[in-house]
Every structure is written in structure tokens, then in C-alpha cells.
From TrEMBL:
Belongs to the complex I 24 kDa subunit family. It catalyses: a quinone + NADH + 5 H(+)(in) = a quinol + NAD(+) + 4 H(+)(out). Its cofactor is [2Fe-2S] cluster. [2Fe-2S] cluster binds at C84, C89, C125, C129. It comes from the Bacteria. Binds 1 [2Fe-2S] cluster. One of its GO terms (molecular function) is 2 iron, 2 sulfur cluster binding. Keywords: 2Fe-2S, Iron, Iron-sulfur, Metal-binding. InterPro entries: NADP_DH_HndA-like, NuoE-like, NuoE_N, Thioredoxin-like_sf. This is Formate dehydrogenase subunit gamma.
Length: 159
């Protein structure tokens, strides 16, 4: 597939999502979510399409996309592991747990393992403060993590 065909495919698929949501009240975030759900990230080629449909500048769309940490501008790994970095989790050993997970995966936050299996992301509060430290793997929450629990999460993510 040539680069132009890939861009054309992005335009068609993103255009369908944009057209289905542009008449909503406050459509930008739902459109970004829909495009990320479709592609696994928000392709740069989709930004001018969104901007034009919503009568925004490309910079405004880019600014919103980069403000919210859940939007990606490149594909994630097959699994996404998010570690809570909020104060409650940090006070319960979250920093040491994060270092352990980074070491086990051989990557830092915002990186993907070489085999493409896991993307590691920080998240600032999963709402499990009473069960700190917490993590989320592919949308599933885990609380009261210890070293063994972290090791198990990494093993599960590597599969």
C-alpha cells in the first residue's frame, strides 16, 4: 500500500467518524475519541479534517489533543499498562512499583516495548486512592499492588 493510499484510507475512515459526530454539542472530544478508537491513535492526517469540519484551526485541534494525555499521536502496543502517579499511590509505594515495572519491561513511561506488546503510560489518578497503589491494564483496574502483583501484570501484558 502506498503512502497516498494510506492517507486516503485515513481520510475516508476519519471523515465518516467526523461526519457522524460534527453536529453534536461540543463534538471535538468525541471525534478525537472515535478516531483513536478506530485507529488506535489519532493520525496527524486527521487533524486538518477535524479542524475544517469544526471551523477550528489545526493548532486548536492539536492543542486539545496534546492537552489530554489519553490521546496518542502514534500507535500503542497491543496492551496498554497505566500506572497511577497521584499522591495517594506515591505515598503507598507507587514510585518503587513504577521503577520495578519500567525495569521489568525495559522501557520508560510513554514508550512501547521493542516487540510491540506493551505501552507504559503514567496516569494521574485512577480513582482507587483507598486501594493504592493502583494500575490499569487494557481498561481493567488493579489495586493494592505489591511487587508480586506488578510482576503478574507485566507477565499478563507480555502475552
Amino acid at each position: 500500500m502506498s503512502l497516498n493510499q494510506a492517507a486516503g484510507d485515513i481520510a475516508i475512515r476519519a471523515g465518516t467518524i467526523i461526519d457522524s459526530m460534527k453536529s453534536m454539542e461540543g463534538p471535538l472530544l468525541p471525534i478525537l475519541h472515535g478516531i483513536q478508537e478506530e485507529f488506535g491513535y489519532v493520525p496527524q492526517d486527521a487533524l486538518p479534517l477535524i479542524a475544517k469540519a469544526l471551523n477550528l484551526s489545526r493548532a486548536e485541534v492539536h492543542g486539545v489533543m496534546t492537552f489530554y494525555h489519553d490521546y496518542r499521536d502514534h500507535p500503542a502496543g497491543r496492551h496498554v499498562l497505566k500506572l497511577c502517579r497521584a499522591e495517594a499511590c506515591q505515598s503507598m509505594g507507587g514510585d518503587a512499583l513504577a521503577e520495578r515495572v519500567k525495569r521489568l519491561l525495559g522501557i520508560d513511561f510513554h514508550q512501547t516495548t521493542l516487540d510491540g506488546s506493551v505501552t507504559l503510560e503514567p496516569v494521574y489518578c485512577l480513582g482507587l486512592c483507598a486501594c493504592a497503589p493502583a494500575a490499569m491494564l487494557d481498561g481493567e483496574l488493579y489495586g493494592r499492588l505489591d511487587n508480586e502483583g506488578a510482576d503478574d501484570l507485566v507477565k499478563e501484558a507480555r502475552q
